[in-house]
Amino acid sequence: MSDKSPSTEKKQVSAIDRKERLKIPPLVTPKQDSKERIKNWDEVYLELDIEAAQREASRCLQCPAAACTHACPLQNDIVGAFALLEQGDIIGAANKFRETSPMPEVCGRLCPHELLCEGHCVVGKKGKPGAIGRLEYFLADYQRKHEGWPLPKVAPPTGRKVAVVGSGPAGMVVAEEVTKRGHTAVVYEAWPLAGGLLRYGIPSFIIKKSVVDDKVQMLEKLGVTFVTNTVVGKDISVDKLLETDFDAVFLGYGASQPVKMGVPGEDLDGIITATDFLVRAGVPTEHLPPEWRQPIDPGDKVIVIGGGNTAMDCLRAALRLGSQEVTCVYRRTEAEMPGNAKERENSIEEGSEFMYLAAPIEFLGGERNRVRVARCQRMQLGEPDSSGRPRPVPIEGSEFEIPVDTVILALGYRVDRLILETTAGLEANRNGTLIIDPETGATSRPGLFSGGDAVRGPDYVVDAVADAKRAAAAIDEYIRRKQAGET
Ligand code: SF4
Fold first, then answer.
1. How much is the pLDDT for 387?
2. Residue nearest atom 1 in ligand 1 by C-alpha distance
3. What is the whole-number distance in angstroms between the Cα of residue 380 and the centre of ligand 1?
4. Which pLDDT band, with edges at 50, 70 and 90, does 8 fall under?
5. Which pLDDT tens digit goes with each residue over 43-70?
6. Percentage of residues of the chain with pLDDT beyond 70
7. Is residue 152 part of a domain?
């Protein structure tokens, strides 16, 4: 741990220094060669060496205004961490991130940096911004490798219990934060292992499973209990949790219901949702329920419908399974694609093709009811729709066919309504997202809190982490008021 206070950590960078710092070449993040990496499921980005990380940190202008921090949903003290890294205090720098982030190794990997911290980096106005995410997870990984995941201090036990529904990022953070405050946390997970989206939704070439394993083990060491293979709302109700054992419940079940296209032939064999595909393709079979263990063979010709990060994950997973012609079919243009540009670049490097301004209108089957052809239609961009992006408008008479072996639907996710339908007193929007007090995460029913994708719909992991921190503080407050007889 660093014993330096933040005020001594930060340097005053003179105008001359700033000029010199702006001349330092930006980090070239080492990656596995694209031809090699499609033969494995290891992370694309290779480890950094300390010197390269320190050099990159020394590009930071130590701006007192720290626009990067203000753009970070967790308000990470990036300038303070980089000053420590530059001085060689690697553990101190890692701890600087941990002061505000319960999982820098996760957010550093998964954040859309170009829209958040790095998008606001002053160095980025004249060139490449600081590689904030890359350095964040370099520091966190280095610390875990050399010292293990540091355990936070835990307050004396209060004898109070909190149930957490879902062990994805939001659920894990609530469990950690309420445990730190002295409460007992029990996390319920539908899958056989804890980790939620991080284990079952995001492929290991983006985030290695050992990061998730380490976080789960760290929480277990802290005293958190995980109850897996249990669907809350089916195997046990929220009411039962509240009646029997728990003072409060955090609903962090995310948004995992795939959106369908609603076109003829969509139910043919060989048409699969992104979740089904990614889970079967990339999660070790021993971590799956028996009914999910059938191996997947997508064949040579694969199309992925959709343009977000999940679509990129599917393209890249198909290439790793040996498919030869892997094409993203997207109804708008690249400029409107919602995902992370870096992941799109990685996908192109690996051999994915992109077909813009096109959408399937029908799927045709062949032998044994298996999809054989996607009939598509060309699109043109029209007036903006409710998302603010130009609406794709079909061009009459432009139909064409693509021969396919497998079609993967990566059109986005909706929240599951199971808990909403089995729990009285919960208010929700028409799309099923829960209505909460944004300051506290409190739902319409006392004792129930929520955050992350169950409230936002599919969104960034870092926002779920920030929601979870706020909700945990509010749960603590709620329990203490309850103990004092105020509720
Ligand atoms: Fe940037 Fe995300 Fe890290 Fe915040 S948590 S500093 S936004 S990478």
1. 80
2. 117
3. 36
4. very low
5. 999 999 999 999 999 999 999 999 999 9
6. 97
7. no
- The residue ranking higher by pLDDT, 6 or 82, is 82
CATH of the domain at 130: 1.10.1060.10
As a whole number, the mean pLDDT across the chain is 95
Q: Return the best residue to mutate from 45, 82, 107, 173 for the ligand 1 pocket (most ligand atoms within 8 A of CB).
A: 107
What are the tens digits of pLDDT across the range 304-339? 999 999 999 999 999 999 999 999 999 999 999 988
Q: In angstroms, what is the span from residue 117 Cα to ligand 1's centroid?
A: 6
If you average pLDDT over residues 344-350, what whole number do you get?
97
240 and 295 share one domain: no
Residue 171 has pLDDT above 50, yes or no: yes
If one residue of 68, 111, 121, 461 were mutated to test the ligand 1 pocket, choosing by the most ligand atoms within 8 A of its CB, it would be 111
d(CA 57, ligand 1 centre) in Å: 15
Say what the pLDDT of residue 255 is.
Answer: 94
Can you give the three-state secondary structure of the chain, one letter per residue?
CCCCCHHHHCCCCCHHHHHHHHHCCCCCCCECCHHHHCCCCCCCECCCCHHHHHHHHCCCCCCCCCHHHHHCCCCCCHHHHHHHHHCCCHHHHHHHHHCCCCCHHHHHHHCCCCCCCHHHCHHHHCCCCCCHHHHHHHHHHHHHHHHCCCCCCCCCCCCCEEEEECCCHHHHHHHHHHHHCCCEEEEECCCCCCCHHHHHCCCCCCCCHHHHHHHHHHHHHHCCEEECCCCECCCECHHHHHHHCCCEEEECCCCCEECCCCCCCCCCECEEEHHHHHHHHHCCHHHCCHHHCCCCCCCCEEEEECCCHHHHHHHHHHHHCCCCEEEEECCCCHHHCCCCHHHHHHHHHHCCEEECCEEEEEEEECHHHEEEEEEEEEEEEEEECCCCCEEEEECCCCCEEEECCEEEECCCEECCCHHHHHCCCCCECCCCCECCCCCCCECCCCCEEECCHHHHCCCCHHHHHHHHHHHHHHHHHHHHHHHCCCC
Ligand 1 atom nearest to CA at 111 = 2
Distance 72 CA to ligand 1 centre (A): 5
* Tens of pLDDT, residues 189-210: 999 999 999 999 999 999 999 9
| Among 114, 116, 463, residue to substitute to test ligand 1 (most atoms within 8 Å of Cβ) | 116
CB under 6 Å to ligand 1: residues? 72, 74, 76, 78, 101, 107-108, 111, 113, 116-117, 132-133, 136, 462
Q: Which of 147, 179, 214 is the last residue of a domain?
A: 147
**Do 271 and 237 fall into the same domain?**
no
Residue 474, domain extent: 161-256+414-483
What is the pLDDT, as a whole number, of residue 473?
Answer: 98
Q: How far away, in angstroms, is 210 Cα from ligand 1 center?
A: 20
Mean pLDDT of 210-226: 97
Nearest atom (ligand 1) to Cα of 101: 5
pTM of the model: 0.94
338 and 472, same domain (yes or no): no
